[in-house]
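Section 3.1: Structural characterization of target chains.
Under the original work plan, the team committed to producing a structural model for every single-chain target entering the pipeline before any wet-lab resources were allocated. The record below documents one such target. The sequence was received from the expression subgroup and is listed exactly as submitted; it comprises 229 residues.
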Amino acid sequence: MNHRVAIIAGGTGLVGGELVQELLIDPSWDKVYLLVRKPLEWTHSKLELILADWEKLNEFPPGVTDAFCTLGTTIGKAGSKENFKKVDLEYPLRFAKVAKEKGVKSFFIVTALGADPNSFVFYNQVKGEVEEEISKLGFETFGIFRPSLLEGDRKEFRLGEKIGSKLAFLINPLLLGPLKKYRSIHAKTVAKSMVNLAWSGKKGNHIIESDKIATLGSSSARGNLENLI
């Protein structure tokens, strides 16, 4: 597909930041729009910012071919289950609905390993609900990415994730076979896997769990995408 245009919601977060960089260096995308609450401190010739109000999202540029959603928070940071649900369910769904209305063909979202609308775990339940609701919109290509513990340089300090990261370094080599999907994974790998699935243009709904994300996000993936998706 020529003249592809991307729009990203959540592009200042851990995975989102990596995703922005991947799309900016990829010649397959001519332009990258980024929904933000305030201007960034850097610019790029392919990047255009859109100041967005998530309570009434209606700004959406023409010509977008691929929408990426990496919005997400924690219950601790959100302050309540209600606020968490707003960021992880209501905002992504609102973004997806506007994208669909504007004729966007492909939508890609990061949720979490264990996402299930019927889960007894609130976090996983909300992640499953957003997957389910967006899948009903009928995008030609819908990619769901379910990473395990995310590695990378966060802007904010999260003690639990720092401890988890150190434990993952010791445990990852022991997670083999069906357990590989529980290995921690770097945010850049998740971003690369999203771009590679988008680049493939393969239609349909795709659920990419963490072990498959690692394969799809490898540097050699594009030479064998047909067998990886």
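The first strand starts at residue 4 and ends at 9.
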